[in-house]
Structure formats: C-alpha cells, structure tokens
Amino acid sequence: MFKIYDISMTIDENVQVYKNKEEKKPIIRNVQNFSNAKAYESRIDIDVHCGTHVDAPLHMIENGETIETIGLDKLVGNARVVDLTHVEGGIGRADLEPFGLQRGDWVLLKTRNSLSEEFDFEFVYLAEDGAQYLIELGVTGVGTDGLGIERAQPEYTTHRPLFNNNVIIVEGLRLKEVEQGTYFMVIAPLKLTGIEAAPARALLIGK
C-alpha cells in the first residue's frame, strides 16, 4: 500500500500570507445560497502567490517565460525531501552537500517553516550559495516550505539565477508530516496563462 501526503496549504481567509500583508489575503465570498437561489455558489479573489504555488521566470525577470511554459512533465516524478529543520537563516552549499543530490533531482527543503502556520519574518530561505550549488548540480526544481525562496536579498540572488538556469521554483509547501526520503511527487498548478505564477495542489506518494 502507498500513502498520499498532501503538502499544499489550505486556502482560506486565515491562511498565512507573505509579510502578513492585508492585500495578499484571499477573499472568499458567497454570491448565492439557498435563501435566494436554488444552488450555492462562491467566488474567490486570490493572489497567484497565495499558499502553495509555482513561480515562473516572469516573476523576477523582465520578459521572462510565463506559467504555461512549465510542462506538467517537469512537475511529476521522483522528489527528494531533505530535512533541514536544524538550519537557522539561509540554507547554503554546506547544508546541502551531505545529501548527495544528483543532476535532475527535484529537491524539497523541509525546514522549521513547516512547523508553524504563522508567518515568520525570519523564515528559513535558500541562500545565494545554496542556489548556486543546486544550479551546478543541474537539479530540475526546488521546493521550499517558506512563502519565499529568499528573504531580503535586494537583487533577488536566489530567484534570478535559478530562473536563468531553468530551475523550477515551488513555494509554500507543508512538509511537517513528511520524513526525509524519496517520494513520487505531483504538483498541479492551476491552468493559467500569460502570468508569472499559479496556485497549486502538491502531493507526495510514498510507502
């Protein structure tokens, strides 16, 4: 038998959002119900970087590729969950080297970010030298349990090099219940086009 781990954030009006900015909170409202209609319907207003989401290069690179250019074949396959819950601050090359990561890997960074549902202004992030190490290895993608893969780097020295080297970025994962190891991963972004990101449902399948 196999086990399915839902590693995506639940979207509701109390979901944590980046820097707790009010304008980033989703708005979910009922537009009709059984008091005024024969069916119940709701609408949602959501930032495309809300909750678990896939970034596309346009997010940080002028005229960069948009979300529909990331094929589903790049978002389904084996992934390595690496336990970095002991790390404070930035995840660097020295933190990643012991895991023996390989070319083509999908790497999911499990940190203390997964242990709380409150936004932490000091969240653990991928430092510039950690990003460069993953680029040198030739990984396919990197996922983080922070709402940002970097924190307060003025020139976006994590995002931009990853994008420029065709490394896919997923943010906002929930990995609290997932042990370190290899899993079959499915990440399914909303089928949007022409923009820089899309909310996604993310699953890991293991024993």
Describe the protein in words:
- With 207 residues, the chain is mainly β.
- Helix content is 10%, strand content 30%.
- The protein has three helices and twelve strands.
- The strands form three sheets. Strands 4-10-9-7-5-11-12 form a seven-stranded mixed beta barrel.
- β2 (27-32) and β3 (41-45) form a beta hairpin.
- The longest helix is centred in the middle third of the chain and has 10 residues, at 128-137.
- It is globular and about 60 Å long.
- It starts with a strand and ends with a strand.
- The mean pLDDT is 97.
Distance between the termini: 6 Å
Q: In angstroms, what is the radius of gyration?
A: 17 Å
> How many beta-strand segments?
12
The count of helical stretches stands at 3
Which bin fits the share of residues in helices? Answer: under 10%
Order of helices and strands: EEEEEEHEEHEHEEE
Question: Which percent band covers the strand fraction?
Answer: 25-35%
Mean pLDDT: 97
The helix-and-strand class reads mainly beta
> Taking strands numbered 1, 2, ... along the chain, how are they ordered across the largest sheet?
4-10-9-7-5-11-12
Low-confidence stretches: none
Give the CA-based shape. globular
Q: Largest sheet at a glance?
A: 7 strands, mixed, barrel
Organism: Paenibacillus arenosi
Protein name: Cyclase family protein
InterPro entries: KFase/CYL, KFase_sf
Pfam families: Cyclase
